[in-house]
Description:
Strand content: under 5%
Transmembrane segments: 6-29
Keywords: Coiled coil, Membrane, Transmembrane, Transmembrane helix
Number of domains: 1
Distance between the termini: 149 Å
Shape: rod-shaped
Coiled coil: 30-85
Structural class: mainly alpha
Order of helices and strands: H
Oligomer: single chain
Amino acid sequence: MDWFTGISIVAIAAGVTISLVVLVAVGSIRRSLNEASARQSQQIRKLTETVATLSAQHQAAQTRIQQLTDANRKMSDELTALGERLSDADTVQRVAGTARLLH
């Protein structure tokens, strides 16, 4: 075996070693990326569920606010009507009281 054959064998061994290290590194990077992608997918899924829940709660709150607004408007109308009736009753009593005083 001459020196050229020895250098060739060392070069081939070094190439194989470097190739194996590169393959292991690429595999490790791929695995890490896959795991990160899986975590991100899970987080996106959770966020999507949270957004859907919050949207439903928001819609329910909007519906309840509308119901309360309608009820408040109805009570205001009833209170106004009651105030008018009381005002009319006071006027009738004053007129009747004045009429009694005159008789």
